[in-house]
Amino acid sequence: MNMEHEKPNKCAKQARSRAMVESLIESLTRILKTKPVDETTSNHIAEKAGVSIGSFYQYFKNKNALLETVLEFTGNKNIRILEESIFSRSHADWQPHVEYAIDTVFDFFMKEKSLHFRLFSQLYPLNRLDIIMAGREAGEKIFEKILHLHLTAEQLGKINLPLVQYIAVNSFMGIIQIQVYDPKKMNPDAVKAEMKALVCSYIQKSLDSER
Questions:
Q1: Is the pLDDT of residue 123 over 80?
Q2: What is the pLDDT at residue 1?
Q3: Which of 17, 60, 99, 153 has fewest C-beta within 10 Å?
Q4: What is the band of 78 on the pLDDT scale with cuts at 50, 70, 90?
């Protein structure tokens, strides 16, 4: 489906404009924690942000335009928060670091499960697969950085790093999305433990194999 992406009508360059846009982003984000986007309106979003509906339309031509901005803003913010957290402490080897990264990302998305469920559910209708791809690319870079921190050049030479990080990151991203959506509500701790075992055993198998 080809759909023209909705964009803000006015570039928020001045401090007041930035504050206005940020308040609208925060307003819709708070609303999405408790209800789906189709149960709210531009008027309700503006009211919760403490701005007039005229101010809303000064920057966004409709609700979907703001929603796309929320998706972009939240995606970029999540990447920054997670990368900072994942590298906030030292680890003796690659395995505890990878396990810590999985714990960090998993717990982050489960903490705001309802919000992320509603955000994920809008990516396909709005044709914003680029946001998913940006998250995957960021995940692969984080994964690569972890392995470069802990593996020797000889160890790195034994593995097909692009393939390993592609398989590991995409497997994990798929599990995260399913866990957010899963109506069966699988035990998060059990899922997380299995995910760590799966990813770490895959990496170890790659290290033990000759290319």
A1: yes
A2: 43
A3: 153
A4: very high
User: Which residue type, as a one-letter code, is found at position 19?
Assistant: A
Contacts of 47 (CB under 8 A, 6+ apart): none
Give the CATH fold of the 15-64 domain: Arc Repressor Mutant, subunit A (1.10.10)
Q: What residue segments make up the domains of the chain, in order of their start?
A: 15-64, 70-208
CB 108 within 8 A of CB 139: no
Which two structure tokens, joined as six digits, stand for 87? 């590298």
Domain at 70-208: CATH code: 1.10.357.10
Handedness of CA 118, 119, 120, 122 (dihedral sign): positive
Look at the block and give the residue holding tokens 């690569």. 144
Q: State whether residue 87 is helix, strand or coil.
A: coil
Assign 3-state DSSP to the chain and report helix, strand, coil percentages, each to 5.
75, 0, 25
Residue 42, C-beta contacts closer than 8 angstroms, at least 6 positions apart: 53, 56, 57, 60, 62, 63, 66
Q: Return left, alpha or beta for 127; rule: phi > 0 is left, psi -120 to 50 is alpha, else beta.
A: left
Alpha carbon of 79 to those of 33, 82, 108, 148: distances in Å?
A: 19, 5, 11, 19
Note the pTM of the prediction, 2 decimals. 0.85
Distance CA 182, CA 44 (A): 29
Nearest to 116 by CA among 177, 167, 66, 65: 177
